[in-house]
């Protein structure tokens, strides 16, 4: 066993020299960043709803999430730590005693655990090793009104289009391997989450979404009501992409129209169905940035860099342009990205960087205007 310090807690876990789902008790040190962001998101959510909250970690492993929520988030009345592994349950209980907290420990299959506690939780954390798809129906059924779900997916090869068939099987959506494939993957996960919630007459509002290293993560505000569910489904649609000229766009609705590229006339490829609405909420993320100043986080600087980029993405349309990819297709050297952005702003367009890719820009400008901005930056 080794001792790990994370946030304001200290736990003991088996040596994690090799992260594996077959480990005696699962603990992933690379997910400390994920947990740091989760602590901030949960605190802001608790202040939004202004009540004592009950939270559930459905795949608790070492118990680190539930323990951190109890220690670091004000207003958490109960934290459940569930894991089907009996060794994990022992580890959770030992680590809880080390930190003088008392999460409610459960040893159940995640789906059974959620189904047997419907309407109990204000926040459900679904963070499995792999895809969350088999558990999202249970999470959608269990979550109460005015609540939040945190969803993590580590099966990024399918969501990003490297392997199409697994994505179709798990998420009933077609991915595309484009320069913005990680955003497409996040939007597939968001659409899948929203459609599961809508089945139980619950609407979705995405507060923060990010793709970091080997995983994707969503924070979803849930409100009950058939009308809210119907409004959410209006944000389901498809992303359209041209592999010839790199045009991209999107359409709303469940039936995509066979379309030709408005730029070069080639047939467009389609990704979806997926979420084409907002995936970042500027107000929520701004509150997270403020909250970070009050928290002890080992990875605070990295967390703040992510949040400061995500807040700029709020309100931007789906997809982005990779300036280097566009310059390559145009046969020109890539100018400074800031110069391209300045030209677009000068022409009256909105533009921002994106956390999905350092060479990408989000903008409401069309492909022609972006190419003109690149040419103008070369003069």
TrEMBL record:
The primary gene name is trm1
By sequence similarity, the record places it as follows:
Belongs to the class I-like SAM-binding methyltransferase superfamily. Trm1 family.
Q: Which residues bind S-adenosyl-L-methionine?
A: 35, 65, 83, 109-110
EC nos: 2.1.1.216
Q: Which biological processes are named by the entry's GO terms?
A: methylation
Which HAMAP family does the record associate with it? tRNA_dimethyltr_TRM1
This protein's name: tRNA (guanine(26)-N(2))-dimethyltransferase
**Annotated binding of Zn(2+), by residue:** 242, 245, 261, 264
Q: What class of enzyme is it?
A: transferase
Q: Does the keyword Ribosomal protein apply?
A: no
User: Its catalytic activity?
Assistant: guanosine(26) in tRNA + 2 S-adenosyl-L-methionine = N(2)-dimethylguanosine(26) in tRNA + 2 S-adenosyl-L-homocysteine + 2 H(+)
GO terms for molecular function, please?
tRNA (guanine(10)-N2)-dimethyltransferase activity
Q: Which InterPro entries match?
A: SAM-dependent_MTases_sf, Trm1, TRM1_arc_bac, tRNA_met_Trm1_C
This protein's UniProt keywords: Metal-binding, Methyltransferase, RNA-binding, S-adenosyl-L-methionine, Transferase, tRNA processing, tRNA-binding, Zinc
Q: Which species is this record about?
A: Methanothermobacter wolfeii
Function of this protein? Dimethylates a single guanine residue at position 26 of a number of tRNAs using S-adenosyl-L-methionine as donor of the methyl groups.
SUPFAM superfamilies attached here? S-adenosyl-L-methionine-dependent methyltransferases (SSF53335)
Any Pfam family from its record, for instance, is TRM
């Amino acid at each position: 066993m080794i001792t790990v310090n994370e946030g304001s807690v200290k736990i003991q876990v088996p040596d994690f020299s090799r992260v594996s789902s077959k480990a005696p008790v699962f603990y992933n040190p690379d997910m400390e960043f994920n947990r740091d962001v989760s602590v901030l998101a949960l605190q802001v959510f608790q202040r939004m709803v202004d009540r004592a909250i009950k939270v559930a970690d459905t795949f608790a492993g070492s118990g680190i999430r539930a323990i951190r929520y109890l220690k670091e988030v004000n207003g958490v009345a109960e934290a459940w730590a569930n894991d089907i592994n009996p060794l994990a349950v022992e580890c959770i209980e030992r680590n809880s005693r080390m930190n003088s907290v008392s999460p409610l420990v459960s040893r159940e299959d995640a789906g059974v655990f959620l189904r047997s506690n419907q309407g109990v939780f204000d926040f459900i954390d679904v963070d499995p090793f792999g895809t969350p798809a088999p558990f999202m129906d249970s999470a959608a059924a269990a979550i109460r009104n005015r609540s939040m779900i945190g969803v993590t997916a580590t099966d990024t090869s399918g969501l990003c289009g490297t392997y199409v068939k697994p994505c179709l099987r798990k998420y009933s959506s077609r991915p595309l391997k484009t320069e913005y494939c990680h955003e497409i993957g996040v939007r597939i996960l968001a659409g899948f989450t929203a459609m599961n919630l809508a089945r139980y007459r619950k609407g979705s509002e995405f507060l923060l979404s990010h793709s970091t290293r080997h995983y994707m993560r969503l924070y979803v505000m849930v409100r009950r009501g058939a009308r809210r569910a119907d409004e959410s489904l209006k944000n389901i649609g498809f992303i359209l992409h041209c592999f010839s000229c790199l045009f991209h766009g999107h359409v709303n609705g469940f039936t995509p129209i066979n379309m030709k590229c408005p730029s070069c006339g080639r047939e467009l490829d389609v990704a979806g169905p997926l979420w084409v609405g907002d995936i970042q909420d500027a107000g929520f993320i701004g509150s997270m940035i403020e909250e970070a100043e009050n928290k002890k986080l080992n990875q605070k600087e990295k967390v703040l860099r992510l949040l400061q980029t995500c807040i700029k993405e709020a309100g931007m349309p789906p997809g982005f342009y990779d300036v280097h990819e566009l310059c390559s297709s145009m046969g020109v050297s890539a100018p400074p990205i800031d110069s391209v952005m300045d030209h677009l702003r000068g022409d009256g367009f909105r533009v921002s960087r994106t956390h999905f890719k350092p060479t990408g820009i989000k903008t409401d400008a069309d492909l022609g205007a972006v190419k003109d901005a690149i040419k103008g930056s070369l003069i």
